[in-house]
Amino acid sequence: MADKEFDVGGRLRTLRAQAGLSQRGLAERAGVPHAQISVVEQNKSSPSVSTLRKILGGLGVSMSDFFNDSRSAEQAGPFFAANGLIDLTSRIRSPGYLSLRQVGDAKEHNLQILHEVYGPGADTGEILLQHASSEGGIVVEGEIEVTVGTLVRILRVGESYLFDSRIPHRFRNVSSTTAVVISACSPPYL
């Protein structure tokens, strides 16, 4: 299926129905407004990464499982082609171009390694990310604004971060050039 054909709303509706939840029930579990579930399921609004992650958390589904409902032998590794990474985000619209691609099966290895590309204006969302993990990364191209709790810093090539992901956090490209980050998170959260 081509990326543009992926039906985010339809997939969410199917998973919600399989879980035996109403829209209101999922909204309560996820901690989002009821109307947000409705507009996403109708494809009237494309959620940010943080919002989709929050909604999927209410279902106990990772973004990796949401977008890749089947696993291939290539995902087992131990080696992966450049085009063999698991696409977690290009099927959702967000402000600016945002791509998060995962190396292999993160659940199996209890480690999520991501190749992250943030176009100018890209943002993980106004709702800060928060999950029970530790994560770190290094900027390999451009610069990225990282918010961790009340701390905000613009990191440039060669600079890095490492923090307890239970602290609310956000990633934004506030520059006019593309930023690339290689990151790791354990246990996996997307």
Automatic annotation (TrEMBL):
Origin: domain of life: Bacteria
PROSITE patterns: HTH_CROC1
Keywords: DNA-binding
Any one Gene Ontology molecular-function term assigned to this protein's record: DNA binding
InterPro entries documented for this protein: Cro/C1-type_HTH, Cupin_2, Lambda_DNA-bd_dom_sf, RmlC-like_jellyroll, RmlC_Cupin_sf, TransReg_Diox_bact_type
Gene3D superfamilies found in the cross-reference section: Jelly Rolls (2.60.120.10), lambda repressor-like DNA-binding domains (1.10.260.40)
Domain HTH cro/C1-type as annotated: residue spans: 12-66
Keyword Cytoplasm: no
GO CC list: cytosol
PANTHER family: HTH-TYPE TRANSCRIPTIONAL REGULATOR, HTH-TYPE TRANSCRIPTIONAL REGULATOR PUUR
Protein name: XRE family transcriptional regulator
Protein source organism: Aureimonas ureilytica
